[in-house]
C-alpha cells in the first residue's frame, strides 16, 4: 500500500493497452478494482498522475506470495497492490511474502529515502563507547522475518533498520566472534556489497576516530581495480565527493582477525558512514563487533 498525496488520476495498462483509468475518490471506498474487470486483468504498468502530469510509475510488478497479484485498486489517497485480498488459508505464519516493482518518479524531483526516520526506532550505541549501533549484529540477527524466496532471515530487525545490508548480505549464526550472530556477505558479482550505517561523529577536520571490526574471509579475490577487496572503512561526504578512509584491505582466506585503524576526518565533511563488506572483487566475508570511537 502506498499513500501518495496530490495525485488525482490513475491509469493501469497491460501489453501496451490501457485496461483501467479513472480519478481518485475523495471519500474512502475502493475505486478502479482490476479484479472487477471482465475478465479480471493484472496490470503490468501503473501510473498515477497529478493534473495530467505523470507523478509515479510502477512497472514489472511481481510477487512471490502464495497467490498471484489479484487486485489493484485505489481507496481515498491510497493505492493497493493486493496479492491476498481478504483472508487466505494458504498463508503461512511467521513467513513474509515479497512483492517488487520498478518505481519511476515522473516529473517530480527524486529524493533519497528518509533514512533517519527509520533509524529513530533503532538501538542505542553500545556501552563500549562505540558510536556504532548493534555493532555485534545481535539485534539485527534477531529478525524473525524470513524470505519466502530464499528461506533466510531478512535484515529487518523488529527494532528498526540499523544496518543497511547489501544484496547477498545476511545475518547468520553459522559463525561469529561475539554473541551469537554476525553479518555475512557473499559476493559473486564483483559489485560493491557493503553493510552500511551512518554514524554521528564530530566532523571537525583532523578529528581522529578508531575504527575496528572482527572479520573472517574465504576466497576473497581482488576485483578489476586494486582497491576492490574486502573492506573496513569510514566514508565521509565532502563537497568534492565521497572520501574513503579504509583501515583494512582483506584478501584470501583467513580465520577471525581484528581489522583496526585510526582515521582522520577530512576537511568539509558533512556526514560519515561506516562501511564493511566485499567492496568489489569476489568471495565471502563475515563481520562482527564493529566499533567506532573517538581516539
Ligand atoms: Ca555478534
Provide an overview of this structure.
The chain has 295 residues and is mainly beta. It has two domains: 2-105, no CATH class; 116-294, Jelly Rolls. Helix content is 2%, strand content 46%. The protein contains one helix and 18 strands. Strand 2 and strand 3 (17-23) form a beta hairpin. The relative contact order is 0.13. Residues 110-126 have low confidence and may be disordered.
Strand content: over 45%
Looking at how many chains there are and whether they match, the oligomeric state comes to single chain
Q: Which cofactor or ligand species appear?
A: calcium ion
Largest sheet: number of strands, sense, barrel closure: 5 strands, antiparallel
Shape: elongated
CATH names the topology of the largest domain as Jelly Rolls
Cα end-to-end separation: 46 Å
Average of the residue pLDDT scores: 80
Number of strands: 18
Class inferred from helices and paired strands: mainly beta
Poorly predicted runs: 110-126
Helix tally equals 1
CATH level 1 class label of the largest domain: Mainly Beta
